[in-house]
């Protein structure tokens, strides 16, 4: 992201004698068409992106914040692009309209609902813009911090399908995907199934780890499961008011998201998978390793989404 600036006290409302402040958060992104690796070997894929990365940057705001979003479409782009934030309530025609190469668009919304929400390009054909990599996460922290347990670590995992030929929209419409990816890579965090993988998610035994799980699709449902673990809590859409306990799996459809909390009583690992086997065994597995000396930087700050 080029810049995120936060200006406080844009809106001041007087409630009795107490001043209530609403933050305005400015988010700017540039749509860029670039080559990116889609596996641990470095196989390159012609990707369409936000900010040159798949997934796009994690946007993090608080419930009630006003988000001023600006989308630049790089002048080297060959296609129009757009932005659909699932955390926004706006006008689909005016606000989600396509931005041509070299032009700028944008809109403003208030993040009224806490949770984890999908964002994606909605330019035509949407199936292709999503499959090429134009998706990401926006996390809206609840205003009431006590409404949800504070996690020790947090990770973003976004599931998507890989189509061998991204120019072939007919194959996408026929659902002819070859692999499922987490965060834009086949077995990106799974050295068990791909020895070339160098990354894993990490936590300590006893820590509460929260996975912000988004299913970008474009087509497949995900049955998200932790092999050798149980979800302590699942929050559909990440909203603290939606809570399920002791879940083995929870289905997240295309375009949907949920927050999954897990606590391991032992050292070792869980394998986080979509339990649909063709999806898991073609790339949809991430290892969450539990050790007493887990890297304190993992699952925090910029390492919420492990690049
Ligand atoms: Cu696009």
Describe, in plain words, how this protein is organized in 3D.
The structure is a single chain. It is globular, with a radius of gyration of 19 Å. The longest helix is centred in the middle third of the chain and has 6 residues, at about 125-130. The chain has about 300 residues and is mainly β. Strand 2 (about 20-35) and strand 3 form a beta hairpin. The protein has three helices and 20 strands. The chain folds into two domains: about 5-145, Sandwich (Immunoglobulin-like), CATH 2.60.40; about 155-305, Immunoglobulin-like. Copper (II) ion (CU) binds next to loops.
List descriptors.
mainly beta, Immunoglobulin-like, 307 residues, 2 domains, single chain, binds copper (II) ion, six-stranded mixed beta sheet
What is the domain total for the residues? 2
Q: Report how far apart the termini are.
A: 15 Å
Portion of residues within helices: under 10%
| Number of continuous helical runs | 3
Shape: globular
What does the radius of gyration come to? 19 Å
> What structural category do the secondary elements indicate?
mainly beta
Architecture per CATH nomenclature, i.e. the level-2 architecture of the largest domain: Sandwich
CATH level 3 topology of the largest domain: Immunoglobulin-like
**Annotation, overall tally of beta strands:** 20
Order of helices and strands: EEEEEEEEHEEHEEEEEEEEEHE
Strand % is over 45%
